[in-house]
Amino acid sequence: xxxxxxxxxxxxxxxxxxxxxxxxxxxxxxxxxxxxxxxxxxxxxxxxxxxxxxxxxxxxxxxxxxxxxxxxxxxxxxxxxxxxxxxxxxxxxxxxxxxxxxxxxxxxxxxxxxxxxxxxxxxxxxxxxxxxxxxxxxxxxx
Length: 142
Fold this sequence. Notes:
Elements (H helix, E strand, L loop, with lengths): L11 E2 L4 E2 L1 E9 L8 H17 L3 E8 L2 E8 L5 H19 L1 H7 L6 E10 L4 H9 L6
Antiparallel strand pairs: 1-2, 3-5, 3-6, 4-5
Helix pairs in contact: 1-2
GO molecular function: DNA binding; transposase activity
Pfam family, one: Y1_Tnp
Organism: Streptomyces finlayi
């Protein structure tokens, strides 16, 4: 019996593109204040999932600790990742500040929720050394 071919569900198709883009994002609270508890992390995840859906992206994973959150995002190539990040941070900040005002004020975070910087790393696919070797070994036109 021959093995069945299973399509890769992460590979998406558009009109003129086939893509499989993932990014690992890390957002840190302003002054690395320990503001998150389990309830607030759950709400942050809900808000960020909604933002991703509006961008036609998918949040594959979410987790965090008191002072930061991690996201694994699957996104289409038409999305500028910086615009998605700005929206994720801006929208979540507005909702969390409105819904957890007392907690945030007690911790003394001022008027800004997230630190201005963030981490992003590309994820998935073959290791860079394999991709580099593949490209180097392609035939050049004669």
